[in-house]
Design a protein that fits this description.
- With about 290 residues, the protein is mainly alpha-helical.
- It has one domain.
- The protein has a two-stranded antiparallel sheet with strand order 1-2.
């Protein structure tokens, strides 16, 4: 007689945004420790960080980097790297800045977001359906998107008014910049899409084992396309925020963001092999690197 042993299923892992066990599992502990140490040292050297003016100015520098880092993290979670983030950001930035005075502002916002989304989907289609390496695809498209940005606007310019700055980068109240509110909304919505939707959860699965995802009857290619589209949309929003914070469009505004986002993702504890990454850790890593 043969006895079959049935293993009890493991408890469902916590999916809370700030859960300690979750941060350990996603490798965010180094980012948290680095942030705490850096913050203590920074406040000792520069106690003026907590003044309302300095806090607001810091927010306007940190937030576009943090949002772009979240966008990079999504691609890294699939096992790829996006070299085109800077060029996409520049292109969306100049399109929003140049169109703001020509069309109603909601249309200008949609054009900026749509630019980021379209660029992300182009990258995603090439990676997911032509099976090309993400780093090679995005390196090539970076030249194309960057050239388009410089063709539209060859030097910093555009026509933005004070209402854009007030809405995106102003203060809701002392010590409460709108910038951090926007960052919080982006982080929560992205976390929900990746953790609480079926296609979002498969993004992590693609990074861990694309074959396993396909064997389970899920569409791995669609998941990669979704990841690139979501990443591009976030980059578009970061570009709009940057234009609002600086009150101008700049065809090279995104250039510094490529290496910064890759470094921040590395510091966040994400696995560049894919399958693991923490949005909370990415934000803390982005803040740390931006203020260094």
């Amino acid at each position: 007689m043969t006895t079959t042993t049935v293993l009890a299923p493991e408890g469902r892992p916590r999916r809370g945004f700030f859960g300690i066990q979750r941060m350990r599992r996603e490798g965010a502990t180094p980012a948290v420790l680095a942030f705490v140490v850096f913050l203590v040292v920074y406040l000792i050297i520069n106690p003026g960080l907590l003044t309302p003016l300095q806090f607001m100015n810091t927010a306007n520098v940190v937030v576009p980097v943090a949002i772009a880092t979240i966008a990079q993290l999504i691609i890294v979670t699939t096992g790829g790297i996006d070299i085109s983030i800077g060029a996409v950001m520049s292109l969306a930035n100049v399109i929003f800045a140049t169109q703001f005075a020509l069309v109603p502002w909601p249309v200008a916002v949609l054009m900026g977001l749509g630019t980021g989304l379209a660029c992300g989907l182009i990258n995603g289609l090439l990676v997911a359906y032509l099976r090309l390496p993400a780093i090679a695809v995005t390196l090539a498209t970076a030249f194309i998107f960057g050239a388009l940005a410089r063709e539209i606007l060859d030097r910093p310019g555009g026509a933005l008014d004070d209402s854009v700055y007030a809405t995106l980068a102003g203060n809701l109240a002392p010590f409460i910049p709108f910038a951090y509110i926007w960052l919080g909304l982006v982080a929560v919505v992205t976390w929900f899409l990746l953790q609480k939707t079926r296609i979002g959860r498969t993004v992590y699965g693609v990074g861990s084992s694309e074959h396993a995802v396909s064997s389970a009857g899920m569409h791995s290619r669609l998941s990669v396309l979704f990841a690139f589209g979501l990443s591009g949309l976030l980059v578009g929003f970061a570009a709009i925020f940057l234009a609002g914070a600086t009150m101008t469009g700049d065809p090279r505004s995104g250039d510094p963001y490529v290496l910064t986002t890759i470094a921040a993702v590395a510091l966040s504890g994400a696995s560049f092999a894919g399958g693991r990454g923490s949005i909370f850790g990415a934000i803390l890593a982005a803040i740390t690197l931006t203020l260094v």
